[in-house]
Every structure is written in structure tokens, then in C-alpha cells.
Design a protein that fits this description.
single chain, two-stranded antiparallel sheet, Alkaline Phosphatase, subunit A, alpha/beta
Length: 492
């Protein structure tokens, strides 16, 4: 068998067009790119920012924040039990939802028709805190102590009524998987200053013993149709935060270096032949993995952290895989130049555990969240680090379950009004923005849609959300889809 003949028989359609750049493939490609204004002389080329390429001309204006940490409470915290104090909800405890509040609102199939559902008072008392006078539940004592650092947005609303679509919507701007997530958009647009760690890191945790069945899907930190170099790198619990970084037994670091050099040379040949961006990603990721062999052990070594700092984060801080440990890792990551850290904690889906598991969730997350904010402030990092805390929607002010069975009280999904808080990074501290009605069912003042929140986060990082786009399948996509307004009332 002639090897040259056999090689040509195995050439794929992609390879054929790649090798005929001056023929029909090149002509067709030039025609398409020309129509879309994407030829080299028509489109600006990426510039290098630190360890990862960013786009030229970004940021569009002076940013207030250089980096962001998203504390995402997977499963939807109950706003009416934690931050959105409604005295009338207590007065109407056990009575049917008043007529006129629900209209034709759609709820999950677990609620079905909400008419006749009984109102459920907050399970713990609220008090006002700080000079701002913010109302916070007794379930959140550590957050209560830092209210003057926080901006509460109590008028959030979304379009999705179930978890995975709502989380995808909050993180990527679309309910269906496949779009780039917030961290991917930021690293695509702004690049990253570190060469030794990923620009976008995701970490997950769940409270022990929780009955929550929510899954951490990989698309929650995916890059969608952006080149895969922009996707989040998940740091795992346990001995190896990132799999396959360690060299196999018998392979020295010098031998690994030589192997990677040879592999890069082969990939460079393919890159020159075809220009496939995924080949460039492969080269970059091999190099990143090699550098992370040194940077990740240093990152995860807490021996240089003062005991006073560890005590701030609570008793679980040294236990890998806990929310407390991940919060401390988030601070250490952004100190080392990481652009976006997504810390996700599951267990908030309390359909029948408001009086039990909600307490565990708050105990596991309240102290570390507050400690992260104060730790950043004490180090001078809060000023240009944006911290966001919240879930995909809220929970119903009426009960799910039997009012007589207090042990199994629950609340269903509620997309029409919920609360998030922000800190640092150009956000006004010590304020409450927006308002829900007197039962926490609908937004009545300064509504903030998911796309409005996304536009605001991008704005704080110096990005005009309408101008950060990526052309895919003939359309210019952006994080905020086709709408979204910056929430100017929360800007410092």
C-alpha cells in the first residue's frame, strides 16, 4: 500500500478545505468573511493582556472593578426568610393568598394553581442592622454585621421557573445551555494578568446531609461557542484540585518539558495548516497545565495564612470542598491575578425543609461570605473586586406542604421577586435598591431583570454590554442577549 495514496484517501472534508486555501475553500471563506466584516484588514486583531489575550479597545471605559467573585447559591435562597422582611406576611400566616397578587403567574408543577395556597411567615425574626438599617434575618448573623458594606437589590426578577434553565439564564443570559457564561465573556473581552493560573475558576460545594438533588452541570462555567480556552476550570475538592497535573511515576519535570515542547511543535504545524482556534487552545492549555504544576500547590498551601484570618472564615475553612474553604481560595485566586471566580453552593432547594436544612445552609455559608468581604476590605482589594451573592430565583411566600407539619414546611420556586447582594467594585455600600410588594410576591419599585444585572456587572468592569459581542451562526451574540440596562442607582 502506498502511504501517500492512503493518506490522501483519509483526508477529511475539513482538511481538504484547509489545504486548498487558495482554491474553492479560500474563496468561499473570503466571501463569507468579507460580507460579515471579519477579514483581517476589516476587523481589529486581539491584543495580549498578561497571560491571556483580550480584545483591543477594552475596557471601553475606566473600570471600577478589575475582577469579580460570584457566590452563587444553587437552588434559590428564600428571600422572604433571609433579607426581604414583610410584616404583613407574618400577619397573614396560615391564610390564603389574597386575590389580586397572583394574576396569571406561572409556577412550577409542584405548586400548580397557586390560588388558595396558605401564606407562610418567616421562620426566624428580622432586625435592622448598621447605619443603613438593612433588615436581615437572625439566620444570617455574620451578614447582619456587614450590612453597611453591602448593596441589597430586592427587586430582582427572572423568566425561568425551574433550576437549570434559571441558573443558565443568570450565568449565560440564555435558558438553554450552549451560550458563554459570564466568566467566559469577561476573560474573552478583558484577558487576564496571570500566566500561572486559569483566568476563570469555578468551585462547588454542598452542605453535608442535604437532600437537595441539584446538579452542577459543566455548562454553568462553559465557554459555549467561544474558543474553549475561555471556559472555567473547575477546582475539585480533595488532594488534586485539578486532575492530571501531576507527572506520572518515573517522569521528571525536565522530561515533561521536553515532551511538551515536541508536542507544541507538532500542534504549531497543524495550526499553520488549518488555523483552527481549538489547536491554539490545546497548545495554551498544555502550557498552562505545566505552569500549574507549581502554582496550584502554592495556591492551596494555607500554612502562611494567619490563624486570625482562618478563624474569620469559620471552622470548615481547612476542609477542602466546603464553602468556607472555597471562599478563602477565591480570595487567594484573585490575589494571584485570576479574573473571575465562581463559587457555587448547592442545597437551597427547600421544598420541604425550611425549618431544617435552611438552618444548615445559612450556618455553612453566612460566616464565610461575610469573612470574604471583610478579608478583601482589610487587604485593600474590595475597592476593585466585585462580589455578588445570590441564586437563580427566590421562593414562594406561601407554603408548600401541610401547615400542620412544621418539620416539613417548604417553599416552591418563585421567579417574580427575589434578592441578591453586591459588595465592592464600584457599588454603593449600605443601600437597599428596589422593593417587592408587601407579601414579597411581585416587584413594585425599580425592577431589575437578569439582563439588567448582567449589564451592570459588565459596566463595573469597564465593558459596554452592547459592544461585547461574538458572531456565531450569522448572528452577533452577547451576554445580555437583546436587552438589558445598567442599574445606575447602585453605582457608587
Amino acid at each position: 500500500m502506498n502511504p501517500l495514496v492512503e493518506h490522501h484517501r483519509q483526508i477529511t472534508r475539513r482538511e481538504f478545505f484547509g489545504r486548498t486555501a487558495t482554491g474553492i475553500g479560500g474563496a468561499a471563506l473570503a466571501s463569507l468573511l468579507g460580507r460579515q466584516g471579519l477579514l483581517a484588514d476589516q476587523a481589529a486583531q486581539p491584543s495580549t493582556v498578561g497571560g491571556l489575550r483580550g480584545l483591543p479597545g477594552l475596557p471601553h471605559f475606566a473600570p471600577k472593578a478589575k475582577r469579580a467573585i460570584y457566590l452563587f447559591m444553587n437552588g434559590a435562597p428564600t428571600h422572604v426568610d433571609l433579607f426581604d422582611w414583610k410584616p404583613r406576611l407574618k400577619e397573614l400566616h396560615g391564610q390564603p393568598v389574597p386575590a389580586g397578587y397572583l394574576g396569571d403567574r406561572r409556577f412550577s408543577t409542584m405548586t400548580g394553581d397557586p390560588k388558595g395556597k396558605l401564606m407562610l411567615a418567616p421562620v426566624e425574626p428580622f432586625q435592622q442592622h448598621g447605619q443603613s438599617g438593612a433588615w436581615v434575618s437572625a439566620l444570617m448573623p455574620h451578614t447582619s454585621a456587614i450590612t453597611d458594606e453591602l448593596c441589597f437589590v430586592k427587586s430582582m426578577h427572572t423568566e425561568a421557573v425551574n433550576h437549570a434553565p434559571a441558573i443558565s439564564f443568570m450565568l449565560s443570559g440564555a435558558q438553554l445551555p450552549g451560550r458563554p457564561t459570564m466568566g467566559a465573556w469577561l476573560t474573552y473581552g478583558l484577558g487576564c494578568d496571570t500566566e500561572n493560573l486559569p483566568a476563570f475558576v469555578a468551585m462547588t460545594s454542598v452542605s453535608k446531609g442535604t437532600s437537595c438533588g441539584q446538579i452542577f452541570y459543566e455548562f454553568y462555567w462553559g465557554s459555549g461557542f467561544l474558543p474553549s480556552r475561555y471556559q472555567g476550570v473547575k477546582f475539585r475538592a480533595g488532594g488534586e484540585p485539578v486532575l492530571y497535573l501531576s507527572n506520572p511515576d518515573g517522569m521528571s519535570r525536565e522530561l515533561r518539558r521536553g515532551m511538551l515542547d515536541d508536542l507544541a511543535a507538532l500542534n504549531e504545524i497543524k495550526l499553520r495548516d488549518f488555523g483552527d482556534p481549538e489547536i491554539a487552545t490545546r497548545i495554551a492549555q498544555y502550557e498552562m497545565a505545566y505552569r500549574m504544576q507549581a502554582s496550584v500547590p502554592e495556591l492551596t498551601d494555607l500554612s502562611n495564612e494567619p490563624e486570625s484570618v482562618l478563624d474569620q472564615y469559620g471552622p470548615q475553612v481547612k476542609e477542602t470542598g466546603t464553602f468556607a474553604h472555597n471562599c478563602l481560595m477565591a480570595r487567594r485566586l484573585i490575589e494571584r491575578g485570576v479574573r473571575f471566580v465562581q463559587v457555587m453552593h448547592a442545597g437551597w432547594d427547600q421544598h420541604n425543609s425550611i425549618t431544617t436544612e435552611l438552618y444548615t445552609q445559612c450556618k455553612d455559608t453566612d460566616q464565610p461570605s461575610a469573612a470574604l468581604v471583610m478579608d478583601l476590605k482589610q487587604r485593600g482589594l474590595l475597592e476593585d473586586t466585585l462580589v455578588i451573592w445570590g441564586g437563580e430565583f427566590g421562593r414562594t411566600p406561601f407554603i408548600q406542604g401541610d401547615l400542620k407539619d412544621r418539620v416539613r414546611w417548604g417553599r416552591d420556586h418563585h421567579p417574580y421577586a427575589f434578592t441578591v447582594w453586591l459588595a465592592g467594585g464600584g457599588v454603593k455600600p449600605g443601600i437597599t435598591f428596589g422593593e417587592s410588594d408587601d407579601l414579597g410576591i411581585n416587584v413594585v419599585t425599580n425592577p431589575v431583570h437578569v439582563h439588567d444585572l448582567q449589564a451592570t456587572l459588565l459596566h463595573l468592569l469597564g465593558i459596554n454590554h452592547e459592544r461585547l459581542t461574538f458572531r456565531f451562526q450569522g448572528r452577533d451574540f452577547r451576554l445580555t442577549d437583546v436587552h438589558g440596562e445598567v442599574v445606575k442607582g447602585i453605582l457608587a
